[in-house]
Amino acid sequence: MLGTTGDASLRSKQSNGESDRREELPMPTTRPDATTRWRCGGCGNLTRFDVTRQTKSTEFWHFDLAGQSTVETAETLSESVLEVRCRWCGRDDAVQVVARPDGSP
Ligand SMILES: [Zn+2]
Fold it and tell me: How far is the CA of 85 from the centre of ligand 1 (A)?
């Protein structure tokens, strides 16, 4: 009798960045406010995150006669955080919004 040894539950988190398949869309992440902050539930990281943002903005581009442009003013119309990935362990599904320790104003 031979047992089935193909257990797919053994997934080691290796950071070789080759498999980036996501079965579900990441939920829109809430930005931390004055009383909250992000925390990685995987490793406890509180300070370092890679944030993927999508912004829509209107900018005033000022070209000089040589064709060089300078953005003089920019107004952000909308902004959304698409993904927050922990800088330490690389997880993007474990970052949560928690209260700051000294969140009392
Ligand atoms: Zn982490």
Answer: 8
